[in-house]
Amino acid sequence: MHYFNTQKNKLICLLCGHYCELKEGQKGLCGVNQNYDNTIKNLVYGYPSALHVDPIEKKPLYHFLPASKVFSLGTIGCNFKCSFCQNWSLSQEKSLQDGEYFSPERIVSLALQNECRSIAYTYNEPTIFYPYAKDIALLAHAKGLKNIFVTNGFESTEVIDDMAGLIDAVNVDLKSFNPYYYQKVLGGNLELILENLKHFKRNGIWIEVTTLIVPTQNDSDEELGSIATFIAQVLGSSTPWHISAFHPAFKEMSLPRTPIETLQKAYTIAKKAGLHYVYIGNTHIENDTSCAACNAVLLQRSHFEVLSNNLHKGCCPKCQTKLEGVFDAH
Ligand code: SF4
Fold first, then answer.
1. What are the start-end ranges of the H helices in 164-248?
2. Which ranges of 65-215 does DSSP label H, i.e. alpha helix?
3. DSSP assignments along 139-154, one per residue
4. Which of 188, 195, 213, 221 is least enclosed, having the fewest CB within 10 Å?
């Protein structure tokens, strides 16, 4: 794909839904893409600010190669401005410092050395460093590794089309169901994110959805019900929904942690909406995966560890119902 279009004396960045119009020398809202000599320069290309080997369950992805390791990387910058960001030290960092250069080849080689099965573009919003992510992802696929985006879902239409066949799974943070809140507080657009969720699905990318439940911001019965109903009816009742507990961070230090009762309420609402797989994160609550047909335990977890995987060729060993997701063939 082309990463920008030219319009008179400006460039239009095509990496995310903001479609920033940039004059020579100007940076976009994310702070990491710049009109430099009439081309878009991705200022964080090759300079990840975080590199870790994580369990795949930490992304979180619960229906994607369970118990495997994922090589995770992120840079600085974001195209949103969420006041409760749990990763704000990376996402809101503005100063671009030259660190150590990591070529796409080096990232893939590190992933292989660490026995990872996939690479996750995560920690900050990966669509703002898509040119780097794509170059890594192409090499990763050639070496048999899968690719994962952990994203706010505000990709451009062009990026999602380009991701087809290259990015295998996404975890999309659906932060609210209130268009005003998305626009004014987060700096996004609910309508585009809902369209993008459908677009990921059309493009054959495995989707899990996460919602960080922030007290007083998105925790009403009505809003939780709207999110759950959208996931169940539009993405499908087998789409996993991770409801995650907030802890005070960044500009929201005066809000309390999400009470367990609120998370349990969200769980009940989600089940009523028809969702089969609902997981509560960032708490002591354990999250097994049970068969939607016969309730047999398929994946038993303790925190991010898989204690037992009873799947047989991706199916329930008792009633042979297929578990939706990406699993090993054996
Ligand atoms: S990635 Fe998004 S925020 Fe950044 S310059 Fe491009 S369109 Fe603007």
1. 179-181, 190-202, 221-230
2. 88-91, 104-113, 130-142, 157-163, 179-181, 190-202
3. HHHHTT-EEEEEE-S-
4. 221
The predicted pLDDT at position 176 comes to: 97
Nearest-atom number in ligand 1 for the CA of 154 is 2
pTM: 0.96
- Say how many CA atoms lie within 13 Å of 162 toward its Cβ: 19
pLDDT tier at 94, thresholds 50, 70, 90: confident
Pick among 3.20.20.70, 3.30.1640.10, 3.40.350.10, 3.30.9.10: CATH of 43-286: 3.20.20.70
Pairing of strands 50-55, 69-74: antiparallel
What is the spatial distance between Cα 5 and Cα 17, in angstroms, rounded to a whole number?
14
Task: Using the atom order of ligand 1, give the atom closest to the CA of residue 33.
Answer: 5
Measuring from each residue's beta carbon to the nearest atom of ligand 1, which residues come in under 6 Å? Answer: 13, 15-16, 18-20, 28-30, 33, 79, 128
Domain ranges of the chain: 4-41, 43-286, 288-330
Three-state SS string over 17-44 comes to: CCCCEECCCCECCCCCEEECCCCEEECC
Cα 131 to middle of ligand 1, angstroms:
12
pLDDT, tens digit, 9 for 90 and up, residues 299-308: 999 999 999 9
Give the model confidence (pLDDT) of 101-125 as tens digits: 999 999 999 999 999 999 999 999 9
CA of 73 to the centre of ligand 1 (A): 19
Cross-strand pairs, 73: 51, 121
CA dist 273 and 267 (Å) reads 10
